[in-house]
């Protein structure tokens, strides 16, 4: 039985790979909708990009619904320096010929969760958690109805990527992240601690390009653009591939290791805003609230992504 999921996302080249891999895995993942959020780039771009992706995948029956255009209380911080002005720079995907579904993404989350049997819908969060937090605030009953939230965000051993203390998704809307970790919904966090090991080396990007389909070509082109910033920053043999860790965890959790721990979010400090304070060694009596993934099998991860992208047009 495929897991029913709603993506919440700010595409973003790495979001794109996560979404495409899920759309290429219909036996395991049923994508009920894609809700967009402002993050990597402003909301009009993330929505346009989500529409471009469902067209690329030949899956225009999957609705795209626009969500929040800014964080709960803070000014929006974006990441064009990584993703380019459009967020999918590197690819030459055409303008979407379809439109987003009318309505707000937060309402789509609430209505969809309420319309399905409790415990059957998961949220796959790939960007700032604004929509997720607002849905939980607007409809507290969905916390007990959600199967789980699998999110890319946070950092502990690898520290921050947008500041020395914080990972981007959490940094952009720390108040939203704090609401999510306090919600009681079963959480799986895929932080920089694992995504930094998932590096898009040249052979791995070449494997996407070598698939001979439009999706593989687009993925290789996108990653070849978005890698530039991280290669310069880290000096590694490949840029970390973040968001597809969420899809891969849903498809193949055995590829990952982690532990159930307490994670709290810093929201008060200007210096460490958005830091994920992960009690990995159990030094506090704070109750565990997340399965925090620490490591994964990079070769198997890329093989899985390539295998699923290969099934697309
Ligand atoms: O820190 C990495 C995260 O920030 C990823 O979700 C990437 O898409 C950006 O949103
Ligand atoms: Ca993202």
Main features:
about 325 residues; alpha/beta; Inosine-uridine Nucleoside N-ribohydrolase, Chain A; 8-stranded mixed β-sheet; two-stranded antiparallel ribbon; 12 helices; 12 strands; binds alpha-D-ribofuranose; binds calcium ion
Provide structural commentary:
The protein has a single domain, classed as Alpha-Beta Complex (Inosine-uridine Nucleoside N-ribohydrolase, Chain A). Helices cover 37% and strands 19% of the residues. The protein contains twelve helices and twelve strands. The protein has an eight-stranded mixed sheet, with helices on both faces. It has a two-stranded antiparallel ribbon with strand order 7-8. Helix 2 (43-56) links the parallel strand 2 and strand 3 (64-66). It is globular, with a radius of gyration of 18 Å. The two termini are 24 Å apart. The structure holds alpha-D-ribofuranose and calcium ion.
Layout of secondary structure:
Layout: E1 3-9, H1 13-23, E2 29-36, H2 43-56, E3 64-66, H3 80-83, H4 105-115, E4 121-125, H5 130-138, E5 146-152, H6 168-172, H7 174-181, E6 187-190, H8 192-195, E7 199-201, H9 202-209, H10 214-234, E8 238-240, H11 244-251, E9 256-261, E10 263-265, E11 276-278, E12 290-296, H12 298-309
Parallel strand pairs: 1-2, 1-4, 2-3, 4-5, 5-6, 6-12
Antiparallel strand pairs: 7-8, 9-12, 10-11
Helix pairs in contact: 1-2, 1-10, 1-11, 1-12, 4-5, 5-7, 9-10
The structure holds alpha-D-ribofuranose and calcium ion.
**Shape summary:** globular
Largest sheet: 8 strands, mixed
Poorly predicted ranges (pLDDT <50, ≥5 residues)?
none
Proportion of helical residues: 25-40%
* CATH fold assignment: Inosine-uridine Nucleoside N-ribohydrolase, Chain A
């Amino acid at each position: 039985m495929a897991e029913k999921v709603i993506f919440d996302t700010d595409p973003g080249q790495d979001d794109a790979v996560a979404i495409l891999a899920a759309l290429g895995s219909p036996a395991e993942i049923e994508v009920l909708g894609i809700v967009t959020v402002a993050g990597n780039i402003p909301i009009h771009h993330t929505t346009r990009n989500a529409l471009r992706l469902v067209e690329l995948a030949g899956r225009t029956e999957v609705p795209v619904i626009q969500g929040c255009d800014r964080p709960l209380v803070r000014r929006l911080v974006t990441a064009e320096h990584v993703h380019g002005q459009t967020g999918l720079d590197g690819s030459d995907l055409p303008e979407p010929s379809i439109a987003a579904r009318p309505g707000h993404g937060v309402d789509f989350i609430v209505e969809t969760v309420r319309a399905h049997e409790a415990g059957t819908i998961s949220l796959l969060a790939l960007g700032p958690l604004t929509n997720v937090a607002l849905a939980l605030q607007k409809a507290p009953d969905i916390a007990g109805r959600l199967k789980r939230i699998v999110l890319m965000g946070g950092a502990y051993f690898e520290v921050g990527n947008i500041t020395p203390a914080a990972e981007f998704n959490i940094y952009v809307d720390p108040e939203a992240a704090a609401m999510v970790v306090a919600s009681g919904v079963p959480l799986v966090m895929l932080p920089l601690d694992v995504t930094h090991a998932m590096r898009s080396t040249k052979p791995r990007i070449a494997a996407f390009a070598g698939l001979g389909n439009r999706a593989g070509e687009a993925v290789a082109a996108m990653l070849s653009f978005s890698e530039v910033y991280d290669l310069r920053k880290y000096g590694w043999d490949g840029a970390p591939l973040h968001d597809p860790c969420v899809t891969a965890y849903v498809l193949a959790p055995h590829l990952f290791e982690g532990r159930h721990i307490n994670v709290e979010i810093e929201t008060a400090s200007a210096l460490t805003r958005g830091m994920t304070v992960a009690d990995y060694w159990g030094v506090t009596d704070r109750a565990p609230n997340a399965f925090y993934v620490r490591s994964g099998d990079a070769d198997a991860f890329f093989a899985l992504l390539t295998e699923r992208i290969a099934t697309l047009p």
